[in-house]
Amino acid sequence: MKSTCTILLSILSAGIVMAQPSFTSIPSPANGTTVTAKSISYTGTDPASANGANVNWDYSVLDFSAATASTSTIHTDIAGSGHSASFPTASVYEQTAAGSQLYYQLSSTQQTLLGSVGSDGTLIVNTDPLTSLTVPFNYTETQSDTYAGDYVNSGYPVTRSGTISVKFDGYGTIKLPNETLTNIPRLKSVEDETQSIDVGGFDIIYEYITTSYTWSVPGEYSFRFSIITIETIVNGSSLGTVSKAYYRSAGTATGILGSTAVANATVFPQPAYDLVTVLAEHLEGSCLVSIYNLSGIAVLQQELIATDDALRVDVEQLKSGLYNMEINNGDKIYRQKLMVK
Questions:
Q1: C-alpha distances in angstroms, 69 versus 60, 65, 97, 159, 272?
Q2: Can you give the CATH number for the domain in which 282 is found?
Q3: What is the average per-residue pLDDT within 183-194?
Q4: Do 128 and 160 form a contact (C-beta atoms < 8 A)?
Q5: Distance, CA of 103 to CA of 88 (rounded, Å)
Q6: Which of 73, 142, 256, 288 has the highest count of CB atoms within 10 angstroms of its CB?
Q7: Lowest mean pLDDT, pick from 1-10, 66-75, 87-96, 223-232
């Protein structure tokens, strides 16, 4: 039996004793359980510099007041999801705020991600499921796992696989904007996912390296605070990183949050001459825009701000031809073809 790890934001709080905390059990969610969280861009100190026992973390200066809240809902009625045939062993699924569904198999000692259905209907079944947490899990211990699940995006086959490693790397007191939490554990996870897309005989290889630091409250089903950094690499060239902080303040309901989703966007006009508009649900905030030719070479990279689910990109400098466009706002990755005339 292979070892396990915790995936991005799918951190399940457990029974934790005082003194040195320990994950001892995985709660079972009720149907309709929800989690509401806010996110902002993060430019503070690297969390890696503060780990160990009895650490004092201070993030009280972070301002989430202007951030838009997003809510995900947990369902136990798998038959009512419309995808029970694809995930026959699932016990719960999460309906995310972005419109996608994440399917899990849960027990009191283990959580496994079976796959997902994107907001655009893209089906991903993990042929190598990801067991994201096994308990008991104690301070200084490390868990890891592999996963794989191919899919089709806009008619192009995508080969997808990855590895994740998580370490219980610290515990202590954390100061947040609305509260101070004591004896709280922190998990550091590193996910390295590769997606190879065959576009007309050319392979475009995307690599996403996601590093997350997540703090969880005893007895709750989800994280309380998390800092996540995603680096995007295309055909061996880094396009930079996007970092965000996520906060679920006290008093909100609990639930699971899943990995960064991939979805299609609407891009017009097609063909484009100078400016194009990108439309997609929940497209907002700072975005890394990357445009690649069919050889997978980045020909344009810009950091822009999206508002009201829309983003405008100047492509006047591009030569006539077909391109692949990618927009990464840290929460979600949007992709679409672009024709320039």
A1: 18, 10, 9, 33, 34
A2: 2.60.40.1930
A3: 94
A4: no
A5: 10
A6: 256
A7: 1-10
pLDDT digits (tens, 9 = 90+) for 72-126: 888 999 998 999 999 999 999 999 888 889 999 998 888 899 999 988 889 999 9
Where is the domain boundary, 260, 281, 296?
260
Residues 186 and 276 in one domain: no
Better-predicted residue by pLDDT, 330 or 236: 236
Can you tell me whether residue 292 is helix, strand or coil? strand
- β-pairing, 70-75 vs 298-306, is unpaired
Structure tokens given for 341 = 């005339």
| Same domain for 127 and 54 | yes
Per the structure, the complete domain to which residue 35 belongs is given by 22-260
Give the span between the Cα atoms of 116 and 93, in whole angstroms. 9
Q: For residue 249, which of 103, 67, 56 has the smallest C-alpha distance?
A: 67
Answer yes or no: are the C-beta atoms of 294 and 199 closer than 8 Å: yes
Amino acid letter, residue 68: T
Looking at the fold, whether 199 and 329 belong to one and the same domain comes out as no
Indicate the number of domains in the chain: 2
Q: Is the residue at 14 inside a domain?
A: no
**Would you tell me how many other CB atoms lie within 10 Å of the CB of residue 173?**
14
For residue 271, is the peptide bond before it cis, meaning its omega torsion is within 30 degrees of 0?
A: yes
* 168 and 301 housed in the same domain: no
Neighbouring C-beta atoms of residue 303, cutoff 10 Å: 10
DSSP string, 60-73: TT---TTSPPEEEE
Does the pTM surpass 0.90? The reply is: no
Same domain, 47 and 83: yes
Burial call 280-293: b when 16+ CB within 10 Å, e when fewer: bebbbbbbbbbbbb
| Alpha-carbon span 222 to 243, nearest angstrom | 20
Instruction: State the Cα torsion 55-110-11-265 to the nearest 10°.
Output: 150
* pLDDT given for residue 199 in this prediction: 82
